Amino acid sequence: MLTRTHVLTAASPGTRRELTSLHFGTAASGPKAYVQASLHADEVPAMLVAHHLRQRLQQLETQGRVLGEIVLLPAANPVGLSQRLLQQPFGRFELGSGENFNRHYPDLVAAVADEVEGQLTGDAAANIATVRRALRSACAALPATTELQSLRRQLLTLAVDADTLIDLHCDNEAVLHLYTTTPLWPQVAPLAAALGAPLTLLATRSGDEPFDEACSMIWSRLSEALAERDPDADALPEACVAMTVELRGEADVQHDTASNDAEALLRYLAWRGHLRLDADTRIDQAGANPPAPDATRASRPLAGSMPVVAPHAGVWVPVARLGDEVRAGQPVAELIDPVSGRTSVLRSPVAGLLYARDNRRFVQAGQRVAKVAGHQALRQGKLLSA
């Protein structure tokens, strides 16, 4: 294992933050996988899963079973990790700008299109290599005037040329679920099966440039840009399979669960060609090809994820369980104003899977308290929460 330290732009004199990446295998000798934990720095389950991944990858590397390079970031956001507000961790938004750490990644399409125009041929492998060189060059040219810009640039630099990208997060309270783009679902479905995830949310483009889409969607968007310049240009393959994994809720921090999740991730990486697994490992060859889940049940449109919203402030009391399939109009919670005694029933807006909810039991008027994943796309525009 090679440990690398990446110094971020200092926010003020006397301060310095560092990003640490762990590298297994040999760079440029085969496929590249990238796994990062807790870009939202207060989402702790991801860091525990990364801890178990680190131990297992060290074993597999010693046994010569890492093919190419696997890059692991055990804590992807040192800026957010340092933020506390009134003794509470605050790792989702950067306090200086108010920006979400998992939004607004730079758009590299125009810069890469300018660099590769006229260089691509009918050789798909050569084209991928050419585009990846241009992607690395475009990342190096990004501004890093602020600490947040330098964090985003460094994360993109480490990940943008990966074949497989796994971004580990969690929700407030939730069942395990995934996000990916609609074209990538066949390549992501085996991970959903290996993890036992009952839900993967799909979108062609969810909006606001989250990290995983900034790395995966560059390929289809670059193809479109090049086709506008030359209608005879060959389409580029989807060369980066990227996904976000929501590891249940913030309080789901247990060694047995994290270890099982890490093993599922390793099985998926083996299926993707990043590991060679033998029968004497904890993951045998039979487990290296996880079965695809039932696509009808396991994948639903992100545009069909509908919020349950509080009509007034109060104490909200769940009456439906996480993971329940609920009917449209079915009560999922009660909301009680402790001063007036007013009580409201909160009902599911659609038939679907109750997959996530807020872990704070007193809410303000207009606040979202839960999310239900329906089968029909009903929303438009930006599909991710703030």
Automatic annotation (TrEMBL):
SUPFAM superfamilies: Zn-dependent exopeptidases
Cofactor: Zn(2+)
Domain annotation Succinylglutamate desuccinylase/Aspartoacylase catalytic: ranges: 30-270
Entry superkingdom: Bacteria
Keywords noted in UniProt: Hydrolase, Metal-binding, Zinc
InterPro entries xref list: AstE_AspA_cat, N-alpha-Ac-DABA_deacetylase
Any single Pfam family the record assigns to this protein: AstE_AspA_cat
Protein name: Succinylglutamate desuccinylase/aspartoacylase family protein
Organism: Ideonella margarita
